[in-house]
Amino acid sequence: MTAVRPAAVAGTFYPADPSVLRQALAGHLASAPAAAAGDRPPKLIVVPHAGYVYSGDVAALAYAPLARWRGRITRVVLLGPVHRVPVRGLAAPTVDAFETPLGRVPLDRAALTALDDLRQVVRSDLAHAHEHSLEVQLPFLQTVLGDGFTLVPLAVGDASPAQVAEVLERLWGGDETLVVISSDFSHYLSYDAAKARDAATVQRVLQFATDLEAHEACGAVPLNGALHAARRHGLVPRLLGLRNSADATGLVRPDRSRVVGYGAIAFDRGPGTVPEGDEAALGRSLVGSARHTIASALGLAPAAAPKLPDHPALRAPGASFVTLHGADGQLRGCVGRLEAVRALGEDVRANALAAAFDDRRFAPLRAVEWAGLQVEVSVLGRSEPIAVRSEAEALAALRPGVDGVILEWRSARATFLPQVWQQLPDAGAFIGALKRKAGLAADFWAADLRLSRYRVRSYADHDLALG
């Protein structure tokens, strides 16, 4: 027999009658404005989980555009907070399907089994039995995606952002997998106070904050972990809409003294982001090519290049940095370009040689160092200026762990890759060190000083089983 988790909040959070439910969903989805067509579906969406009469129109802003990806999105990884049963970690169900008035949604049992070795994942049907944060998403998903998708539902309790992100990495997949994070925002503030707090929270989400608290978003725990993973994958957030319960249409007398905030946010793959299935192949090509180039220059490799995966991105213009670390983990060289002026593959090979032999901070690399050499290739995205009038504004605008930063003042220029945040997590120390790298005093500031930021996709040989 098929074990099924039956609908628990049909008739309270949304209509229990299938025809009435379909009519309500159609109305919510029709209220969403037409979305600009992209060539790939969003990877992650954040949606509210209140009763449809309050949050349905907001949720529809994220769900309506998914209809064009019916058949392409075939798995949904759904995370939401627990409201009734305490959970240490993330709770996975043992049943085979979840049911709503629109039918059953089969669970991806293989995906759930693949999480069994993770200590933060527990099995608990009790955590799911009456949890509404996940259930309310299902009728929307059934309507826009049809019956051609499987579900990986996880009820999230006490877990760190890293623990949630580790689970998401295991399930990340490609375009076939959509990650849905269920979360409302502020709870029971006055209308004006809620608008102010929710606007501030959304800005933190758009800047990939991973320390959101429950008073900002009731789904803060899964959301923090999702933002951790989204930042690592270079996703680009889009705010689709932000409202609260008093803004809901159809309410006769909305209560403006105690409202709940709702937002819809989509996270897309950034311009130039490599399709997920090709990411590892591109990484192997770039890092393998850099290693072979250096080894050949040291007289340690045959003249013929090794057979590496081909990828169209290698022939397109690209900007990269090649970073070398010795066996002791210390920096051994780092050279790159900020502008894409040649093919990416050529740029990586040239920067690999320069990092090994022409970085003025270090003596040229020797053959005896080859055995322990660690190679990392960073592919840079397009830079964008940071419009600030003071250093305080600059420090507030930076996204630690995300932004590579370019500092320019007259003839002085320097950059730090995002990886430098690992050594300098404080924005003030980061900018101070960057100014010193440019030959300026750490406390220097001028009205015509310019800052720009960029993102990188980073590939290391220890991550790709190379070398």
What's this, in brief?
The chain has three domains: 4-269, LigB-like (Protocatechuate 4,5-dioxygenase, Chain B, 3-Layer(aba) Sandwich), CATH 3.40.830; 278-381, Hypothetical protein ph0010, domain 1 (Glycoprotein, Type 4 Pilin, 2-Layer Sandwich); 384-456, Hypothetical protein ph0010, domain 2 (Dna Ligase, domain 1, 2-Layer Sandwich). 30% of the residues lie in helices and 23% in strands. The chain contains 13 helices and 20 strands.
Please provide a written account of the structure.
By secondary structure, the protein is α+β, with helices and mostly antiparallel strands. The chain has 3 domains: 266 residues, Protocatechuate 4,5-dioxygenase, Chain B, CATH 3.40.830; 104 residues, Hypothetical protein ph0010, domain 1 (Glycoprotein, Type 4 Pilin); 73 residues, Dna Ligase, domain 1 (2-Layer Sandwich), CATH 3.30.1490.150. The chain is built from 13 helices and 20 strands. Helix 7 crosses helix 9 and helix 10 packs across helix 11. The termini are far apart. The C terminus is likely disordered.
Instruction: Tell how many strands the DSSP assignment holds.
Output: 20
| Binned strand content | 15-25%
Distance linking N and C termini: 50 Å
- Rg, rounded, reads 25 Å
CATH superfamily of the largest domain: LigB-like
CATH first level of the largest domain: Alpha Beta
Q: Give the integer mean of the pLDDT values.
A: 90
State the CATH architecture of the largest domain.
Answer: 3-Layer(aba) Sandwich
- The fold-level CATH name of the largest domain is Protocatechuate 4,5-dioxygenase, Chain B
The main pleated sheet reads as:
9 strands, mixed
Give the domain tally.
3
Per the principal axes of the C-alpha atoms, what is the gross shape?
globular
The percent range for helix content is 25-40%
Pairing-aware structural class of the strands and helices?
alpha+beta
